[in-house]
Structures are given as structure tokens and as C-alpha cells.
Amino acid sequence: MLHRWPWVGYATGGMVLLAVIMLGRSVLRPTLGPMQSNFGFVFEYGACGAPDRLDTFHGTFTKSLLPPPHPGRTVRVLLRKEELRHIYEEMARIDLLRYPDTFAVSVPFWWPFSPPVETVMPAMTYRFVVRNGGQIKRLSWVDDVIRPPNEQAQQLRALIAQIQHTLWTQSVVRHLPQPQFGCL
């Protein structure tokens, strides 16, 4: 005689439901997909409200020159396909589309048990507009929390460092004048 326990059906059904939900989340979550011919991005970065701006759609880089009344200096910068591909691969690796449009590092506050928090001011502000095929991703981030470490923030910083390194290897960018003023 086969014995049936009533909770077995519920447990099995619950596990199946959980598996369907998890599979659905991974299938439905957008990914960057393969690199399309129209891949490009605008990347702005800076502190004190005067960002530098790389625009791969128009092939330009604008270096802000403080103080703010100065419009900055714009030069022609065309990244090679290989450079764009490396940046795209890093965006895909960190799954840039999973980031919220306004990214922030949340700091837990369970005083007196919370870890020490380190912040920086003025903080760097970053903005991205990325297009790949029909996908468009906008992302902004004020990078003011240094510690405790956050994996998504570290991955985003690595992407930013890669873009900046690629940009600074361009001789036309290296020869731009540096701002003569800073902010307090």
C-alpha cells in the first residue's frame, strides 16, 4: 500500500514554483546581447558640476575647464572598433543592464554593529547612455561611498577605469589643457 503524506505535494509544488520563478527571472531579465553595429555610448564624469564628456555617437570628447563659465574644449575622438569591443565586453561582463538607472551604494545602519563608512567629498558623478541595437540604458551614479566595499560599485569603477584609460591613450586628449581651478 502506498502511503501519501499531505505535505509532500505542497513541498514539491512549492519547489517547482520556485524553480519556475527563478528561471523566469533569468530568462526575462534583459542582457546586453551580442554587440550590434550601432553600439555606442555617452560617458560623462566629473565633480563639482563640470563633467568631461565622451560621445562615441558623434566621435567627440569635451574636456571641461573650470571655472564653469568656460565652455570647455571639444576635440574629435574616434575609438577604434577593437577599443569599442573591449568596452562593450566589459559592459556585458558586469551585466550593465541590471544596474538601476540611478545607482547608489546602500550603507547598512545597524549602530553599534555597522561597519565603518568612508565617504568622499566632492564625489565623482558618472552618467552613461548606452545603445546596443534597440536597447538603451541610462545610468547615473554619485560615487561617494568608498567603504564598505560593494561588488557592483567595484565592477562599475573597473569599467570606468577602462573607458578612461582608453580615452587617455588618445594623443589629442593627452594634449588638452588641464583645468586651472578646482572645487571645494
SSE inventory with pairings:
Layout: H1 6-28, E1 40-46, E2 52-55, E3 60-63, E4 73-76, H2 81-93, E5 102-103, E6 118-132, E7 135-147, H3 151-168, H4 171-174
Parallel strand pairs: 5-7
Antiparallel strand pairs: 1-2, 1-6, 2-3, 3-4, 6-7
Structure notes:
It is a single chain. The radius of gyration is 22 Å and the shape is flat. It is built from 4 helices and 7 strands; from the N terminus they run H-E-E-E-E-H-E-E-E-H-H. The longest helix has 23 residues, at 6-28. It has 184 residues and is α+β, with helices and mostly antiparallel strands. It has a 7-stranded mixed β-sheet with strand order 4-3-2-1-6-7-5, with no helix packed on it. It has helices spanning 6-28, 81-93, 151-168, 171-174, and strands at residues 40-46, 52-55, 60-63, 73-76, 102-103, 118-132, 135-147. A hairpin with a 5-residue loop joins strand 1 (40-46) and strand 2. The chain has one domain (40-174): 2-Layer Sandwich (Mago nashi protein).
